[in-house]
Amino acid sequence: METINDIRVRFAPSPTGLLHLGGVRTALFNYLFAKKYNGTFILRIEDTDRTRFDENSVENLISSLCRLGLDYDEGPYKEGDSKPYFQSERLDMYHKHAKQLIDNGQAYYCFCTKDELDDMRKKQEIAKETTKYDGRCKNLSDTEIQAKLEAKIPFVVRMKIPSDTVFDFEDLVRGNVQIASDLVEDQVILKADGFPTYHLAAVIDDHYMRISHVLRGEEWLYSTPKHLFLYQAFGWSPPIWVHLPLLLNTDRSKLSKRHGDFSVSTYLDAGYPKEAVINFVALLGWHSADDRELFSLGELIQEFSLERITKSAAIFDITKLEWMSGWYIRSLPLQEVAHKCRVYFEKEGIDIHDEVKYLKVISRARDQINKLPDITLHAKMFYTETPLNQECSEIVQQDISQKVLTWFVKALQEGEEPMDKEAIQILVSKCSAELGIKGKALYFPLRIALFGDCHGPDIPLLIDLYGKQESLSRLHKHIL
Ligand code: GLU
Question: Which residues does ligand 1 sit against, CB inside 6 Å?
Answer without folding.
Answer: 12-14, 46, 198, 202, 216, 220
